[in-house]
């Protein structure tokens, strides 16, 4: 088997299986470009934290202007590609570049508002974790800050009806933090997720203020045969203010509402609403104390 | 304490603790080279998706030939290193390079077949997730596609008895996606894992068609004193066709079979087989509604 | 809206929301520099494993000396920055550089001791996992080895009262492995966590010898209103020798002690102590076998 033969077999499979090629199509947004843009946006949101050298306020204005200048063109190009990929209804093709520019500016204009939200999240993280020595430690080392900053950025692009880019941004953060916050989720201020890994927040979630969650929490949809037919419907739960959800709890369904001030214990699987101030926990686990020999046996087959 | 003294103490520890050095040994496959090879393989599997510039079908043949030419030499070198590290039985040392070349070609020859499987997985992901706007969005942004593509590649190398490389490939994907799919697992078509983070599929798992899973699902082995003595035995469960497994469920043991069409609820710990069309869920969690004061007390000690 | 206007609005927000800027402040340790230092430290701990070219013992002394020379200056700079950020009590500012140098040397001097611990962890990983073909495979491909090596390094810096750096190091490993081992945790020899993703070990945990855990295990603190007031108190559990903890189990609270030789089943939520040789598992999940039609209905609303 020669390279030429391998090439022919592969190219034949490209022709045969069209579904997973992207040939002659519209250019898709570049994951690499969007990663670089996201990093620049994080530096604009948290000035001085992610730069190698110390930033002085005397320089901050020129630094910020330069960073915005670098950013705006590249972001506009990616927005344009994603709008060409899925054009808004009744928009003439020649208008798309202009729409891309306007939405890019509108998005950048939301950065101060996003900063206000992120300051509440940072405060919640610091106050909520005795292991945190300072706000600086939270910002430089907590994966949560990166994950929520990217989600709040992506949420603005989502509200501006930019396709693909918001999801590429949150998946970039998902890879780095292990937390999958969908750009569509509506998340209130003073949000904190400790440890992050494995936590999932679905597209149509609504999360109130001062909500605290841990690793491995799922706010998810039921898996229904209907599948794509459900797009656009509210499929994910509503979490009211001041709710705490411990590690590994899964809360499912668009009609499920967790009332304010409730606590959900670890590894609970909740598929129905609970009233305010509920405490929801699993049955106590069985504890059996066995002889060393009996325990080894039991460890093998989990009989009691 | 000088650098010289630090050096001497460290070098002495290298001599004393041989187990975790790799000196004078055979050259091991390079993680960095294998990461680069894996990225090239993903581009061959999904042409046009991960390239910066748009690919036209007029160029695809020459692009593919060039990519294969670049790939084949480097891959053969790594395969050769891993075979020298653990030589096949009764193979003269001078034969190893030839065997490495043959297995490399045989592996590359499986790419069209792997693409057929990946098209079924992509279809399952798109159909199974109302949040997905298009097949393109699934391929460019879902970690699942990367994880399953790498596992299906690594599985072919595993079947060709190439040591080390398959596991290095799947651990590369594990780092990026949070999902640990062992190269040995036999996974049927139309597979989909939503969100991926924390999901583990063990070496001797058998998974049927149209199986849908979520984050944090473990298809794992019992932890037995026997340890290494169990190598080669079936230690992980069998999942039949059209099974759905919700987040955080752990299914354990080589004799455990989940019958076709079953649904396993979130956070279930299953160590025995269940018949077709089973619904397996935990006891409902206890819900107690408390006064605000009582709730805060309860949140502290989890008494009810 | 022009770039100039965007710049002014952002700079105004920097002035208004001081909490999440780092301007005119002390220089913080550089995440990028600490990542590079951590990689060099891993190469010193596992010589020959992460180098592209084969290392011969004839070269190892000079290689080690060169690596230490490269390392020591950069590490001392970062230690100095973090001590200037949070100076030790009653230390004159001009002493800080000297203290940084001494603690850096003291830290590097602990590497042989760390290697002794890592050899026990590597042995535990190899013996505990039948899927492991060799110790080499464990070291080159298991995320656990990287995670525990970084934690044992960071723990030494933590004991030397170096701020920020230990946490930046363990979060670097958290991003790569999905496992969040706090630098403060006291972890005995022969430790092994299989798969790693989602596992969290809190700051004040104490873990004995020969403890084996799986993905998604949380050794965590209760979430209390007290928050920062609890800093320094023991908030996380104690795990005695030869305990096995299966995937997704959450063990909570500073007074919680899991007695030696115990086994904790998957997805258990444990908030109280258990005596030696306990077996702790959830109630068996309910299994109901339904007609195909009934099952589809049930899958939608999880009624039984």
Outline the structure in words.
The structure is a homotrimer. By secondary structure, chain A is an alpha/beta fold. The first copy, chain A, has 9 helices and 15 strands. A 5-stranded parallel sheet of chain A has the order 1-4-7-10-13. Chains in contact: A-B, A-C, B-C. At the A-C interface, helix 3, helix 4, helix 5, helix 6 and strand 15 of A face helix 1, helix 8, strand 13, strand 14 and helix 9 of C. Strand 14 of chain B pairs antiparallel with strand 15 of chain C, so a sheet runs across the interface.
What is the largest interface, and how many residues per chain?
Answer: A-C, 88 and 86 residues
State the distance separating the first and last CA atoms of chain A.
Answer: 58 Å
Helix percent band of chain A: 40-55%
Biggest sheet descriptor of chain A: 5 strands, parallel
* Low-confidence sequence ranges of chain A: none
Enumerate the strands of the largest sheet of chain A in spatial order, edge to edge or round the barrel: 1-4-7-10-13
What's the average pLDDT of chain A? 89
Instruction: Give me the number of helical elements of chain A.
Output: 9
Overall structural class of chain A, as computed from helix and strand content, comes to alpha/beta
Oligomer: homotrimer
Q: Using DSSP, what is the number of strands of chain A?
A: 15
Order of helices and strands of chain A: HHHHHHHHEEEEEEEEEEEEEEEH
Radius of gyration of chain A: 23 Å
Q: Given the C-alpha coordinates, what overall shape of chain A results? A: globular
Strand content of chain A: 5-15%
